[in-house]
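Form 12-C: Joint structure prediction
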Amino acid sequence: MADPQNETLTGAEALVSTLANNGVSACFANPGTSEMHLVTALDGEPRIRSVLCLFEGVATGAADGYARISGTPAMTLLHLGAGYMNAGANIHNAGRANTPMINVIGDHAVPHLRYDAPLTSDIVGLAGPNSRWIKSANRVGDTGALASEAFAASFGPKPGPVSLILPADSAWLEGGIEGEKVTPPALRSVSKAQIDSAVEAISNAAKPVLIINGTALSETGLQAAARLKAAGVRVLTDTFYTKMRRGAGVFAPERMQYFAEGAMADLEGSDLMLTAGTQPPVAFFAYPGKPSLLVPEGCDVLDLGDAGTDSAATLAALADAMGAKESAPVETLNVPDAPTGDLTAQAVGQSLARHMPENAIVSDDGVSNGLMSYIPTQNAQPHDWMMLTGGAIGMGMPLALGAALAAQDRKTICLSGDGAGMYTNQALWSMAREQADVTTIVFVNHSYRILNIELYRTGAGNPGPTAKDMLSIGGPDIDWVQLSTSMGVPAAEATTAEAFDEALAEAIAVPGPRLIAAVVPG
Amino acid sequence: MADPQNETLTGAEALVSTLANNGVSACFANPGTSEMHLVTALDGEPRIRSVLCLFEGVATGAADGYARISGTPAMTLLHLGAGYMNAGANIHNAGRANTPMINVIGDHAVPHLRYDAPLTSDIVGLAGPNSRWIKSANRVGDTGALASEAFAASFGPKPGPVSLILPADSAWLEGGIEGEKVTPPALRSVSKAQIDSAVEAISNAAKPVLIINGTALSETGLQAAARLKAAGVRVLTDTFYTKMRRGAGVFAPERMQYFAEGAMADLEGSDLMLTAGTQPPVAFFAYPGKPSLLVPEGCDVLDLGDAGTDSAATLAALADAMGAKESAPVETLNVPDAPTGDLTAQAVGQSLARHMPENAIVSDDGVSNGLMSYIPTQNAQPHDWMMLTGGAIGMGMPLALGAALAAQDRKTICLSGDGAGMYTNQALWSMAREQADVTTIVFVNHSYRILNIELYRTGAGNPGPTAKDMLSIGGPDIDWVQLSTSMGVPAAEATTAEAFDEALAEAIAVPGPRLIAAVVPG
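Section 2 - Result
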């Protein structure tokens, strides 16, 4: 069955060229000895840009950002079970974002596994829970076919990260066979019957509400959402969505509140909840005596498909079936005045609204400061906003790195908490090496501020000195300007709104990576 | 059954006080919302020192170092499945070191799990493969009993990391009951019959060799090893052992070579291999056409117990049974002259031999530079040397942090590659906060140098530009002095042997954390 031209391919070469044939154009890598043949295979594959990351969580966060912007999965290169675990938190986040991603995990040669060498681990066991699909290419002849399978599986039924384990001997042996070019499964459509029941349910509801994510947050999805809004359906996004088009000229849905009690008060009286591209909203955490499911008592829930569904098409079909011809108004451009005085998250948002160029990309891992920066940008130039979806902080900088490499003609802005940024600070080095056009804004409050809020909300009592220490990341205060420049990213600190506005204007004017340490109240 | 005094304990309090009652004295923590009640429980427990780590891999590496020095497991505090994965690589390493460790993993409240909130994950699935024991305290009344069970399980049958999952409601509810104070299982002894067969096998062997790890590397273990050596048994340690006493006055066994071909050449002709506190040696990685098991053809293997066995006692029993009265010579103190000229790993080792104070602790994650620093210190003041056991680089600085906190009257030296150090650079911040008495030496060669060697050895071909980029961590060069000072650890760079010697003398003279960027050839 082998193409005669392919007979001298190694397994690694067959894997890499299969992914390239299928349109994979980036590999975020942290290789080790067992991946050396993959490294040389990538060396011979000009269609894939290889990006070295100094920590695996950077690689997977970047692969997520790359795919959210390009629509095509990136591959990662991870070193056995330990490398997979280092990569794991951002794979979790990517899973929650329903981002296609192909994690290629090098393993020991198959005959070596039985000897239990120091790096041996149960990779299938470790990676299985966070993989939409997982297989090991235990025979060199299978590497290409499994690469095709992995590529397709990353698109669904529900898109997400897949794991392809490549034992070292399957990589180094000759006899690799290129896999097929596959057509990834398309997003599903909801049936006419489902649309009809939704129309009927809406017509019978006093206060219908629609929760959206996925392709519903694209420009066309939001056009349909604006029609539903005009027809009397309240439209909200998930609190933490994958990617949304927003800004001037775009309809802005509301956003689900983070805190359960606020969300429940806000939804009070809603008697119908439709969900498209998502699932019924759930409190991020449980709290004593507070609800988990954020659906009011007596409110019916109607499922219009998960992230494997084309929810933009769902919304358009629903609007058509309702005969919704009008649209709710879109946002107008509003360039605010330069902020003045103390630097706050809101002032950061104001400056962003002033300086973000058209078609910018925002990676938001701003934690307790995210929301106040989010609001003022609703009337900025049109842009794409990406959220931390899975709650594992430390995604913002890697996500921005990947997004910037996927869209080199666009400016990427990263918002990161200081606590969040520390998990994956190594992303700065890859930004510098690749000269990624990312302006990173770190909210420096020397605190896990969100935890100070959560400590109170969980009723865990008044914090004593030990507890306070556990929630403070001051003492010593991290010098983000030094940290950033140590890895090659020029940086500045701003302690006033005026200084921030100036630093942001400058960072955006110059291509390439920059960091601004935005000192905000703790 | 509850002690009336305990009836108002929360589950978190019962867990924490049970561990404290059992002698746990340190908690390395990176908490989140689901761990708030654990944080306040730790706040009320003066017997446990809580240490905040800004990345979970720092927490588990530090817990490993703490236990290697104190002999008692530390607890960690991790935030759900994502936190566990961030912690995972150093848990893997600790497993390979057979270090007892109690990982307490916060989870969502049990009734919250079914709603699949963003941070929900299959923690048992993720953590199971790297846990000697794993249970979830799904009822508040069980938290204390399971803490006792976890403590005992961390000691064996084979010591290592255990996972205790604590759902948030089991933490916050009242009704916690303190668990028992348990006697950890003692290390096992080998039988007289095993010793007798070993004696007989040795008497019949032409070239017997003994591979040792575990307690055989303690001072008493090495005294017994010296007797066996004098009686004609060649004694080698594992290439990467957990902890060994070495230096002046101590018998120095040989060390297994890292590269398979070197090890096999070295062992040629050995006809009997005894293993005590370890398993038969295995090549770290597989290479095309090279052996995996590092046991010569025709060499018999005799197992004298794994890491769950007291191998110091095994060696003493064996030496007694052989009537071995003489001892091989111990090392003599040799303070070398100050090194001069270009800075090399060997010069670093020479300076260490000059300046390391008596009873220092070394954490070795020096990768390609480790060995050349190791050799000259064989004649230094007596000290303990700890290795990276599981091959997941990024352990050195966290391990040094934990060791230093376990032995505050001793100096800890950390040797780290620059590539290795980047995985867990956040350890520097915790060193600064805790004023840990650690001198960190980073070998700066701007390269994954070991991979340049391995690329050649695996026969992966000549590296082109992409492959070269994947193995180089220069471009941009990381400024380790800035990186270190950004997190509060004073630092200096040395590019000559003279400058290094001076910087090391100064760092060792002053208590508290210091870093030296030792620029060595790439």
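Section 3 - Comments
Chain B has a mean pLDDT of 95. The radius of gyration of chain B is 24 Å.
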